[in-house]
Design a protein that fits this description.
This protein is an alpha+beta fold. 33% of the residues lie in helices and 19% in strands.
């Protein structure tokens, strides 16, 4: 029997005052995030989960088949718990609307180190639609932003 590789760091590293760059992919790379109604519901769930679990969403970007987040945790934050809750609630809502499962198993994460420039991570996330040729300028992309800031402030 094959044992699944653990792709997580020590659990205590996912708690407290930290910044996380997270990517969550849709099941079977389905193009789930092309409808503003669906994304509006996703943002409502994201906002609700953040308030409940003490996270701030500095940046989000709903690409057609995945979601990028830059999350900043507070003292009592727990990223693993937050992602589990968000995927469960958002997946449930999505399945009610479409009849399809939304998320693949697990997620990708990067815990930002003190020396890393958080503004560069924000910019990287916001520029994703531009790199993929969906828009000429990231401010034109309707499915990205921040629950904390106006994305226009990141223009250079």
């Amino acid at each position: 029997m094959l044992k699944r590789k653990n792709n997580r760091l020590a659990l205590q590293l996912y708690k407290g005052l930290r910044a996380y760059f997270v990517t969550i992919c849709t099941k079977d790379q389905q193009r789930a995030f092309t409808d503003s109604r669906i994304i509006g519901e996703q943002i409502k769930v994201l906002n609700s989960c953040c308030k409940k679990d003490d996270f701030s969403v500095w940046t989000y970007c709903f690409m057609p088949d995945h979601l990028h987040l830059l999350l900043v945790g507070e003292e009592n934050s727990d990223l693993i718990k937050f992602i589990r809750t968000y995927k469960q609630l958002s997946g449930y809502g999505y399945k009610k609307i479409t009849g399809k499962n939304l998320w693949q198993k697990s997620f990708y994460d990067h815990i930002l180190r003190k020396e890393e420039n958080i503004a560069q991570v924000v910019r990287y996330i916001l520029e994703n639609p531009t790199r993929k040729g969906l828009v000429a300028n990231f401010v034109e992309y309707p499915f990205s932003g921040s629950l904390e800031y106006d994305k226009e402030i990141f223009k250079m």
